[in-house]
Write a structure and sequence with these properties.
The chain is mainly beta. The chain contains 5 helices and 55 strands. The protein has a 36-stranded mixed β-sheet that branches. A 6-stranded mixed β-sheet has the order 9-10-16-17-14-15, with no helix packed on it. Strands 1, 4, 7 and 8 form a 4-stranded mixed β-sheet that branches.
């Protein structure tokens, strides 16, 4: 690794010594410096782009040119005549100014060579070919090479630290709601331009009256010749695994059709290699682009998620078999109407194995509090071995319609349907409880509808109506068969009212949660003048949830026992069922916001007045809570330059819980985690502060973003937990102790010729009050992470990407302190040789340290691809994953009262041969 870094430094130094600097100022005819003028230098010998620059706010540019060469320098600026001049270099730096004259012609400016990066207002345009070297295959390979753009660990696109919310192709939505399907499937050779749309607004009528600084979209412009023709590729592959009984296979058709009137995208995948475009977790969060109308109101209500929660990451599975079939379309029958939608079906089968050790820490009292219960029982340390199988089938469908008869009217309708069939089987051996076989299965469905209407009365008055309706039906079923060889479950079984005189405990639970929510608002915008407007909002949130559950036991003779628990809450016996529990919530609010600009500053102070009502009915009792609340918010923005800004936000939020935390009866999360709710839970109040700085400087190729967040939660809903051996029983209450969290993050990126350097850092602090065995204690966590990176972007020579991640996590749990250190250097290498052969490899060394002990695991993947030339239809590739044949990954961490380490077994070494045909 050190030798590679040294080599990169020598390459950079050698490159700089072989160059001279040409600099100067670009002005208009009256001597005013021109910001964002484009300056390019074309090598007259190779006819290739040698260097480019964008002028800063003082009109200054800097070019790096080779010594003793001849270059055509072209300067262009929108609205002015472009200027060409031949420059001959020696071994001395050059200083030269340019003046651009007015251009009265209507013809577009013709450039000799396209600028790699241009800025047009809030839009950054990347010329994709300027960053390609021939080793790219998919869109993500191109995006990773663009300055200011990153593919994060979750596979999502980030621009200047902000996650891209929408991706379009030729202006048409591409599977609205997730960008991974685009980045992993759109062929790189079809990409002409990447347009980054900052401050993006989907409704043009509202673009001038709303703050959209956090909204970023990307539009992919296709190359000429890709319209009105099918393009894409089809890949088929096979291979061998270590087991002679396993034969590897892979089939991946990816086809696209675009025309001015309609588009069709077809993506399929069937393999047992573990290469997936969307994971089960991705699909769970695939929202279809839906956004709650009340997202800025200050009210947050959580309807909960009662699906199969513990889905395994693909990277942590021993065996993965997946099938994906998806289609996306758009159709514009006329200029006023746009129709679009998608269908996604995904099926996966996983086999998993994990070995873990949990060390429980004795929780000592906070000296500032008084014990509720003097007795303290700490669970015994536990070793577990878990093997499991997961089967999931997910179907998602969306249909959208947008009608814009004129510039003053826009009507949008969206409907998203989601259906799943998920099942998980797990065999768990615990050193405390013994052997347990568990089954979780659920078939949830939901329908989400969205209706928006925007009306511009005149140039000063705009109205907007947004409504969203959600229906969810979830039916999780849980079964656990416990051998309980050590009688560790007997006390819990007694408390649940189970029959102890059985060969094993056959424990079951049925649940049903139905949710119905309406979220709607009407906005009125009055534009007072060119620099200020006022926004009035009248909105409501209404939700209704119904909950049923029952715990029962199958006896050895096959009969069913409905138990009568002996567990009490404040002296009252708890039941093993929740019968017809109903929770109603409503919020009617009026919001007022005033937005005004003065110089470089934009201020948006606001306040919302809320009338809350919530009640829950269970066991013949009704609990009501009606109250009024005022929630302020504030936003300030400083626009230092066109691409440099500082933003501050403050808002106060009321958070309400879901019905599962309110239901009084006992509920099984699993055999060793039992909960019962509190019908008198109140809302939690939080104060949230955010500061964000962003700078995108094309003059010196520097991209900087940094931010800080702070949140303080009052009356936070917390769990009160008690242990019986390793069996946890929890309930909920509003804590009088405030919890806090803070984070600081940032990244600096700078390009030096063909080398790009990046440094990222994250700092996170949290203070959490925990309540265990009747005692309150403080859990504090501080995490710091650093991620330096160097990468090259040569057009001809091989390219290298070096990354290093260093993370330190300190946890203080009462008087106990734990520390975890992770070091993860990695290297990526890609080379495009002889215009035919592509070699790509990636190696990561992961070292984790805790309590003086160090654990290491390594990953190494590589691929070798051959195609006759860049335009060849056929490509042959050989790929190897997990070349070192590592059995497992290691992870360490800390919970609220425990420290754990786990070993997760992964897929073995796979070697596959693939054949790809490009349309």
């Amino acid at each position: 690794m050190k030798k590679i870094v040294l080599l990169l430094c020598l390459v950079a130094a050698g490159s700089s010594f072989a160059q001279i600097k040409m600099q100067g100022v670009v002005k208009d005819s009256i001597g005013t410096p021109l910001e964002l003028a484009n300056v390019i230098a074309i090598n007259q010998e190779t006819n290739g782009l040698e260097s480019y620059a964008v002028t800063n706010d003082k009109g200054k540019y800097v070019l790096a040119l080779g010594k003793n060469g001849k270059y055509k320098v072209q300067i262009s600026y929108i609205g002015l005549k472009s200027h060409d001049e031949i420059i001959t270099t020696t071994e001395v730096d050059i200083t030269k100014d340019f003046t651009l004259m007015p251009d009265n012609s209507l013809d577009a400016v013709e450039l000799t060579y396209e600028m790699p990066v241009t800025v047009k207002g809030d839009t950054i345009v990347y010329n994709a070919d300027s960053f390609k070297n021939g080793s790219e295959r998919k869109l993500e390979d191109v995006l990773e090479k663009l300055p200011g753009v990153e593919i994060n660990d979750d596979g999502q696109i980030e621009v200047e630290g902000k996650t891209v919310s929408k991706l379009m192709v030729n202006g048409k939505d591409f599977f609205d709601g997730d960008t991974k399907l685009a980045t992993k499937n759109i062929p790189s050779n079809a990409v002409d331009k990447v347009q980054v749309l900052r401050n993006y607004s989907e409704v043009g009528q509202l673009s001038g009256v709303q703050n959209n600084q956090d909204n970023v979209a990307i539009n992919i412009k296709l190359k000429e010749g890709k319209e009105n023709f099918w393009f894409g590729d089809v890949t088929a592959g096979t291979g061998t695994a270590p087991s002679p009984n396993d034969e590897l296979y892979l089939v991946q058709p990816k086809l696209f059709y675009y025309s001015p009137k309609y588009s069709i995208n077809l993506i399929g995948d069937m393999n047992n290699i573990g290469e997936v475009a969307l994971t089960n977790r991705d699909l769970r969060g695939f929202g279809g682009g839906f956004r709650m109308p009340s997202r800025t109101s200050g009210t947050s209500i959580n309807l909960g998620d009662n699906g199969l929660g513990g889905l395994t990451s693909i990277a942590n599975a021993q065996e993965v078999v997946t099938k994906l079939a998806s289609a996306n379309f758009s159709y514009s029958p006329n200029k006023a109407l746009d129709l679009s939608g998608f269908l996604i079906f995904n099926s996966s089968r996983l086999r998993t194995r994990e070995e873990s050790f949990v060390d429980y820490i004795e929780v000592e009292d906070d000296p500032s509090t008084t014990d509720i219960d003097e007795s303290t029982t700490i669970p015994p340390d536990e070793e577990t071995v878990s093997t499991g199988r997961e089967a999931t089938n997910q179907f998602i469908a969306k249909l959208s319609a947008s009608y814009k008869p004129n510039v003053n009217n826009q009507l949008d309708y969206d409907v998203l349907a989601r259906l799943s069939d998920d099942k998980e089987r797990q065999n768990l051996f615990s050193s405390v409880v013994g052997n347990t076989n568990q089954v979780n299965q659920v078939k949830p469905f939901s329908i989400n509808q969205n209706l928006n209407y925007y009306y511009t009365l005149n140039e000063n008055n705009i109205f907007a109506f947004e409504a969203q309706h959600l229906i969810k039906d979830e039916d999780p079923f849980y079964n656990a068969i416990l051998d309980d060889e050590n009688n560790a479950f007997d006390n819990t079984a007694t408390g649940l009212g189970l029959d102890l005189n059985q060969l094993s405990y056959d424990l079951n639970q049925e649940r049903r949660v139905k949710s119905n929510q309406l979220d709607a608002k009407v906005d009125y915008f009055n534009i007072l003048n060119s620099k200020s407007n006022i926004n009035l909002t009248l909105g409501t949130i209404f939700s209704n949830q119904k909950f049923n559950s029952n715990i029962f036991q199958f006896l050895d003779d096959g009969t069913r026992l409905n138990p009568t628990p002996t567990i009490t809450n404040e002296g009252e016996l708890l039941t093993a069922e929740n019968d017809n529990v109903e929770y109603r919530f409503s919020d009617v609010y009026l919001g007022v916001h005033y937005r005004f600009k003065t110089g470089k500053f934009t201020f948006t102070p606001g306040v919302s007045f809320h009338a809350y009502s919530n009640q829950n009915t269970q066991n013949g009792d009704t609990f009501k809570d009606n109250f009024l609340n005022v929630l302020p918010d504030f936003e300030a923005r400083v626009q230092f330059k066109k691409s440099e800004s500082l933003q501050f936000n403050y808002n106060m939020t009321n958070t309400f819980t879901d019905i599962t935390n309110i239901a009084e009866g006992l509920v099984l999360n699993n055999y060793n985690s039992i909960q019962y709710g509190n019908p008198e839970l109140q809302n939690a109040l939080s104060h949230n502060f955010r500061l964000f700085y962003s700078s995108f400087n094309l003059f010196n190729y520097t991209n900087v973003f940094a931010g800080a967040n702070y949140s303080k939660n009052e009356d936070q809903i917390r769990g009160l937990t008690n242990f019986e051996s390793v069996i946890r029983t929890s309930t909920f209450f509003n804590s009088q102790f405030a919890d806090e969290s803070a984070s600081v993050f940032g990244r600096v990126e700078r390009t030096f010729g063909k080398i790009r350097a990046r440094m990222g850092a994250n700092f996170n602090y949290s203070k959490l009050n925990q309540f265990i065995q009747g005692r309150q204690s403080l859990n504090e966590s501080f995490t710091q992470s650093y991620s330096p990176e160097l990468r090259t972007n040569f057009r001809e020579a091989p390219n290298v990407r070096l990354r290093y991640r260093y993370t330190v996590r300190d946890n203080e749990q009462g008087n106990n302190t734990t520390k975890f250190i992770t070091r993860a250097p990695s290297i990526e290498f890609d080379a495009y040789i002889w215009d035919a052969l592509t070699f790509v490899t990636e190696f990561t060394y992961n070292e984790q340290e805790s309590d003086g002990q160090t654990q290491v695991f390594k990953t190494w993947d590589a691929s070798l691809r051959y195609r006759k030339d860049r335009d060849a239809k056929w490509e042959y590739s050989l790929r190897a994953s997990n070349i070192l044949d590592i059995d497992s990954n290691i992870s360490n961490g800390a919970g609220t009262i425990s420290v754990f380490s786990s070993e997760t077994f992964i897929q073995p070494r796979f070697i596959t041969f693939r054949l790809t045909y490009t349309l």
